Structure formats: structure tokens, C-alpha cells
Known about the structure:
Structural class: alpha/beta
Number of helices: 9
Number of strands: 16
Distance between the termini: 54 Å
Amino acid sequence: xxxxxxxxxxxxxxxxxxxxxxxxxxxxxxxxxxxxxxxxxxxxxxxxxxxxxxxxxxxxxxxxxxxxxxxxxxxxxxxxxxxxxxxxxxxxxxxxxxxxxxxxxxxxxxxxxxxxxxxxxxxxxxxxxxxxxxxxxxxxxxxxxxxxxxxxxxxxxxxxxxxxxxxxxxxxxxxxxxxxxxxxxxxxxxxxxxxxxxxxxxxxxxxxxxxxxxxxxxxxxxxxxxxxxxxxxxxxxxxxxxxxxxxxxxxxxxxxxxxxxxxxxxxxxxxxxxxxxxxxxxxxxxxxxxxxxxxxxxxxxxxxxxxxxxxxxxx
RNA sequence: CGCGGGGUAGAGCAAUGGUAGCUUGUCGGGCUCAUAACCCGAAGGUUGUAGGUUCGAGUCCUACCCCCGCAA
Length: 315
């Protein structure tokens, strides 16, 4: 098949990579505009652009693809367009451009979690599984027919990065399978059950702030869902502390004569292998944190350096 | 030149310009039914790099390298 590939971040790389080593032909790669700064003020290419250039592919970048891209893309005479986390909404005109329309790789089990943060939503809600759906793109966000699905399981140790890495890989596999099925006409189209549709909003920095009055289990979900970005974080002396790794601790196993009710939510007790923090309903044992300006440190390293003292309150 | 924190023993941190220490880890020894326990001892450093100021620099000045948080 003659393909136009639209994608931007790392999540799209496995898909592009697999397409490159398949029999399909990539006519062009469309990606978001370059970002202007890293810490040194250098220009940074979207990951997809870097990979595309490395393989000598034609790269197109638009502020608004629906306004600017139609003409150029039409001339490529592609069979299908593929979007993997591209980052822009496609107009109906674009969707009609190719014989097989556009298919999209979406990282949830549709119709659950349409929208911008499907992987985070699955983690925040404590689901025990999530997955990736290959779907026909229609004008309404993530509402088209489902063509293929791959699932993965979630544990209380699974982070956003884990889900991201696994689903980007599963997505690539499912994408190739779907392309083959479209090509030989065996693809099955399953309409979404609109009554079960849920939507997710884009995650921003604020979503990382920890409210210690909430139950330990929910804070743990937040920690995993925000790792690595934006990171679940709290404050100590006005400085940000990211919580990278934690576990719920049964208060009955909390070996301390302290009466927890005497302390505020967010009060921490530093032990060599755990920083125990009081939450709304118990104890969260934190094993890895990152202080502002520091590398990630284990609880033992925090303890050795005396960086956080017992009975101080975070938040 | 976007803002800011940092680089000291394997690791994490201290040290008004005046003998580079602490916790932990490692190695050796001791105690214990036992240990994330305790006691004794040892090794481990050109303080990121290059200059400068000074009787004397981890500390002050200049340039550079590297790591990280924010912002994007």
C-alpha cells in the first residue's frame, strides 16, 4: 500500500519503524512543527521527524494541516493515511483524500477513554487491563469503527512509561496486521457502542500535584499514571519533590509507637528503605523520589544524606 | 545569551579562607538462635577541568565541561 504517515512523538516510532521494514511504501511523513528549545536553547525535532530523515523520507510540517496540507497530500496519490499520535484534527476533506481513508492507532480499549490521555486514564481509574485500538478515523474524535485490538494487563507497579512502551509496540503490530487485512479485504469493522464511550482530557502539570488527604491507593495510581511526565509531586520548603516509586503499606505493619492520628496528612517518617507518608486512609511507602535539581534518589540515599527529616509535612 | 539548583571516598550529604568530615556501603574481627541489630578495626580523596587572587582555596574571581528542576 502507498501510505502517508502522520505522527509526532516517541509513541509513533515503533509503528513507523515496522512500516519501514514492511512491503508497504511510505510516500511522506507528516509531523508537528519543530520545538524551539531544550535547556540549551537548541531546536529539537519531533522524534518521528528524526527517524524519517534518517531513512530519507519526505517530511512535511504544518501549523494547520487541514488548511495547508490538502493540496500537497492529494498529489501523493496515496492509498491510505495512518495517524499515530499526530496531534492535529483532520478535516473531512483530508479523510476523504485516500481510497481507504485514514486509520488511527489509539491507546485504549475503545470506546473507553477517547481523547488525549487514554493511557493515564486507565491507570488513574485502577483498571486491570488496557490496550490499543486500530480504528477508522472519522470526524468525531476517536469514534470510528474498530478494526483491531490488542490488550495488556496492568498491575499496581505499572507506570505510564510501561504502558506507553508496551502499547506503542502492540500498536505497531496491530497496525501492520490491519493494513494487511485491509489490503486483502478480510478486515472486520466493529462499530463502537456509543453508550459506553468515555472521554479524557489532556494531562497538564497540575495533574501531578499530590493531595495527601486522598486514599493511599489513589495516590499510588496517580504516581504511576504521571510517571515520567509530569511526575506526581509534592512540596518541601517550597521546592518540588517528585515521587517516582511507591507502594501502599498496611498501617498494621507500620512498626512505630506513633499514633498516626496526631499527624497531618503528608507527614513523613524516614526509614532506611522507605519514606512512610501519612495519607487520608493510611500509609504510602515511598522508595524513590527526585528533589528539585537532583537526580532520582532511593529512600536509602535520602536517609544517608539526611535530606528529608522525619515528621516534616509535605504538600 | 529564558530562570534556577548542583559536581567533595563506591553511593548520598557536611565543611565563617586555616588539620577535608558524617551516614551508608565495602573489607577484616567480635557478639547473637536470629537481624534493615550491636561493638571494635581498616581501606577508600589531585574536592568536574584550566587558569587567577592569597602566606594559605573545597570555599573567593574568570573561562570551560557535565548532571538535574522549571519554562517551552
